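Team,

Forwarding the record for the chain on the shared tracking sheet. I've put the sequence and predicted structure together so nobody has to dig through attachments.
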Amino acid sequence: MTATARRELAEFLGSRRRQVSPASVGLVAGGNRRTPGLRREEVALLAGVSHTWYTWLEQGRDIHPSRQVVDALARTLRLSPAEHEYVLRLAGHGGAPAERSSEAVPAHLQRLMDALGPSPAYAITSSWSIVGWNRAYERLYPGVAAAADRNLLWAVFTDPAVRDLLGDWETDSRRFLTQFRAEVGPRLADPGVVDLVTRLQEASPSFREGWASRDVDRFSSTERRFEHPVVGTLVLEHHQVTPADAPGVQVVVYTAVDGTGTAAKLSRLSG
């Protein structure tokens, strides 16, 4: 565990401890409680570890919790599957961090995206830099080609055109933020991640508030609504795949949802 991972694990556990009501774990809610949620000694008791050891963990000391202890803490703190996976990765039990990739999309992935025709597609690195896209995506979001800072999270939180394009910006932007944090958690000390997060905190109050929550979530394919200035409402299903031969790149594809008229609109947009 790096020092940054230890600090993030400590602060994340503390933030989740304060969100657990004593009643939900069978404890009496009364008494002289100065802070919301559970006390550290209560978490330690319920998880089967010593109070001192758990206090050290929340202080970010150089200790190494086992997989069994992390699992016990996840149960005690009522962590979601995404949160459980996040603390496992921070503690060094979730596999190696995502492989870094160059700032260029491999040629075969560009050909794959081009072959998708009217379905918008783009490729991002592990730091969410957009490194490639097809014609359909550029028609959906024309600003991608001219963007000075071609990073997906930066575009979502700072580009007014993207805010207008996303049919439910509040929900979509928060979803992007929580997925980004889950992905980069073990790499929070990387200079590129530090620079991006610092600039976003300065540029966007919404990002600053969401980042402070320490919420994390997994990606899941879902329907998304876009409000395009030319063709109107588009209802698209959001997919994300990681090529076996380019693990540092993710390809995002939007496909038209049947019965919504979106397929015809995408054809018009790409024609």
